[in-house]
Specification:
The protein is α+β, with helices and mostly antiparallel strands. Helix content is about 25%, strand content about 45%.
């Protein structure tokens, strides 16, 4: 087996970034029973993927007053959610001042 074949075999079981984004968003949304707003960050880790997912926790009218939350999500190498943590809550219309 050549080095190229070995590299392909090692990476073939790993999800691509687009699939990791979709799975993080979908699984967290199903678990929390909240609408996923967006995925604001994704990165590969040694054991899988880590993502920041924004969800709508409470719908309000006007929607700029809806309560949003950011969650840190951890997926294993197969794309299964293994951990999550809420890191922030905010009004949808709120802008970070950094």
């Amino acid at each position: 087996m050549s080095a190229t074949d070995d590299d392909k075999k090692k990476t073939s079981g790993k999800l691509d970034i687009a699939t990791a984004m979709r799975r993080a968003s979908t699984q967290l949304s199903e678990l929390l029973q909240c609408e996923a707003g967006s995925v604001s960050a994704v990165k590969a880790t040694e054991d899988g993927w880590a993502a920041e997912v924004e969800v709508v926790e409470l719908e309000k009218v006007p929607d700029t007053m809806s309560v949003m939350a950011s969650y840190r999500v951890v997926l294993d190498a197969q794309g299964q959610l293994v951990a999550y943590e809420r890191t922030r809550r905010y009004a949808r219309g709120q802008i970070d001042r950094r």
